[in-house]
Design brief:
The protein is an alpha+beta fold. The strands form two sheets. A four-stranded antiparallel β-sheet has the order 3-4-6-5, covered by helices on one side. The protein has a two-stranded antiparallel sheet with strand order 1-2. α1 packs antiparallel against α3 and α1 runs parallel beside α4. The chain is elongated, with a radius of gyration of 22 Å.
Length: about 180
């Protein structure tokens, strides 16, 4: 019974860390990655579709992303979607493909991106704490239903707290690595 609660709690805390890593992937560092455009949706025949599902997205060098649509008629829709996404660059459409030229980042931009990353870290910590609360609530219900003793309940809650501390530390390590990556010139 308690093992199920622990497994469920650990699994959801891991998902919070994975979500944080996915969020961090959308942030720009010194080198451009295609994950910057992962959240951009293109209107594909009335359906919002991920950019990488309507064309090939390639980082051609450290400051350029090239997008080649599989259907030429999508060029304008892709260009419009990129402009609306407001990722800090204007798309260059040459009739065959779209190029995004990212200028080198200033130190102010780097600091701003670090602030965004800190916000993402805080959201992850809140998610982990919410998972802890759910786990503790389940344990308290088991205690109330007399399925476990008060001592078992205390031990189980301590175990949940250890899981929480481990995962918050893991989230902070992930942030520190990302912060170093962002600030590296």
């Amino acid at each position: 019974m308690l093992n199920e609660v622990f497994e469920h709690t650990k699994e959801h805390m891991e998902k919070s860390i994975d979500a944080l890593k996915r969020d961090f992937a959308t942030l720009r560092t010194g080198k451009v990655t295609t994950s910057i455009v992962d959240n951009i949706k293109v209107d594909y025949y009335g359906t919002p579709t991920a950019l990488n599902q309507v064309g090939s997205v390639i980082a051609t060098d450290a400051t350029t992303i090239s997008i080649t649509p599989w259907e030429k008629n999508l060029l304008n829709d892709i260009e419009k979607a990129i402009q609306e996404a407001n990722i800090g660059v204007n798309p260059n459409n040459d009739g065959d493909f779209i190029k995004l030229f990212f200028p080198p980042m200033t130190s102010e931009q780097r600091q701003e991106i670090v602030k965004q990353a800190k916000g993402m870290l805080e959201h992850a910590k809140i998610a982990i704490r919410n998972v802890r609360k759910d786990g503790n609530d389940k344990i308290k219900k088991l205690e109330k239903a007399k399925e476990i003793s008060e001592d078992e309940s205390k031990k189980a809650q301590d175990q949940i707290q250890k899981l929480t501390d481990e995962h918050i530390a893991k989230a902070e390590e992930t942030f520190k690595a990302k912060e170093a990556d962002i600030l590296k010139v």
